[in-house]
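Customer ticket, subject: "Can you confirm the structure for Cation/H+ exchanger transmembrane domain-containing protein?"

Message body: Hello, I'm evaluating your service for our small team and ran a test protein. I'd like someone to confirm that this is what the system normally returns, since I don't have a reference to compare against.
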Amino acid sequence: MGIALTELLSIELATEHPQVIPISVFIAILCLCLVIGHLLEENRWVNESITAILVGAVSGTVILLTSKGKSSHILVFDEELFFVYLLPPIIFNAGFQVKKKKFFHNFLTIMSFGVIGVFISTTIISFGTWWLFPKLGFKGLTARDYLAIGTIFSSTDTVCTLQILHQDETPLLYSLVFGEGVVNDATSVVLFNAVQKIHFESINGLTALRVLGNFLYLFSTSTILGIGVGLVTSFVLKTLYFGSRHSTTRELAIMVLMAYLSYMLAELFSLSGILTVFFCGVLMSHYASYNVTESSRITSRHCFYSSLFQVKTFIFLYVGTDALDFTKWKTSSLSVVGTLEVSSVITALVLLGRAAFVFPLSVFANFTNRNTQRSESITLKHQVIIWWAGLMRGAVSIALAFKQFTYSGVTLDPVNAAMVTNTTVVVLFTTLVFGFLTKPLVNYLLPHDASHNTGNNRGKRSAPGSPKEDATLPLLSFDESSLLLIEQPVYTIHRYWRKFDDTYMRPVFGGPRPLDQPEC
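Agent reply: Thanks for trying us out. I re-ran your input and got the following:
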């Protein structure tokens, strides 16, 4: 009687709410990933991305066997769900947690890698695939598709390398890898959207200039909007924070809701929500985080990091299950051998496209900073690690591929199905293979003892008593060892900004008082 009643309730639940069971299963698998991630926290061979992919593959296999080969999916991927709900916390967390001191000290180098580098990589991958795909018998893609492919595979995932690098031992290298990863994602999405607006039927010599102009317009206006919302939020929190009338819940809610509002406003005005929410996070971290209680600040960090982890885990779990999606493999216009050939070409172009800008731009950065007394240059070993760090492809590549070649995760077109399967193969290969090889490469190029000694000899910037560099430092704070740099012309703008910030911005929008900071 009890068993029959349970079966009846299960049938009724599945009929009235068909998504309840898949969502419950997916949440259970997410919890499993959290547990496994905790157990492997000290293991730097395996990161969260690799763990999620492997768990997803195992889950997909079980579902495939349970459904007798019909499907390996728990849920159907919706690219709009990713861009509207899942991507904003990833980017906002990056802006809120960014090490602003190092980020802005190396701002020009980071921007050259994250912006110019994406253009170079997109050009090489787009023209390379346009030239090589037909030679492999893979035809049917349009000019828009080839340009979109360039932007899709120019988006990087540097989590694996950042997990291995030691921030205190190699601050310059860590700052460049982290900063480029953030700017790279934003630039790739902005460029992808710019490609969608090209009218290929009336293409001419000015098309490239239009794309560049459209990109610059989106980049600048989105940045201004993000800064504006960040300043408004900081002002509101500073105004509300007086006496004992403060609430951790309200403070955190205002920050999160305003950040999400900035993203949606950017999308409403056809701007780049990624850039907007990133700079909104930077401004909130600089001003608003000082206008809330310490408990709110700590809670916000843990909340944002938790959201970031769950979102990326969600994407890589889906990638693991999607690898066993026989429907796409059967629909694809390529055989298994053809898929491997096309994926190999894409991977080779990714390697070439990244090398084409990392090494030349690093040399240029060293040349331009030769007279600034920067503590260290970008050595050849650093350049190799920066090149390697950007070889992994992740969540943004998957989302852009689904946006370009599917409709709500489904496609019946053989060519589009082929591109989705190839994207999945490239993401799996680069994440698993390159991810596993990252630690041996970094340890070989930067032995722990040597890099540790280098870190200790670098002006002892992390010595006891020196200001701790964390996510709540002001935009351009300088510790005592940085005073020499301020005297150089390159850093003159930093000094004037600091004076302007202390005199006019902080009294209005909040933040630590000048007396709380080391004197410039």
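A couple of notes from the result: Residues 334 and 396 are 24 Å apart (CA to CA). The chain has a mean pLDDT of 76. Feel free to reply with more questions.
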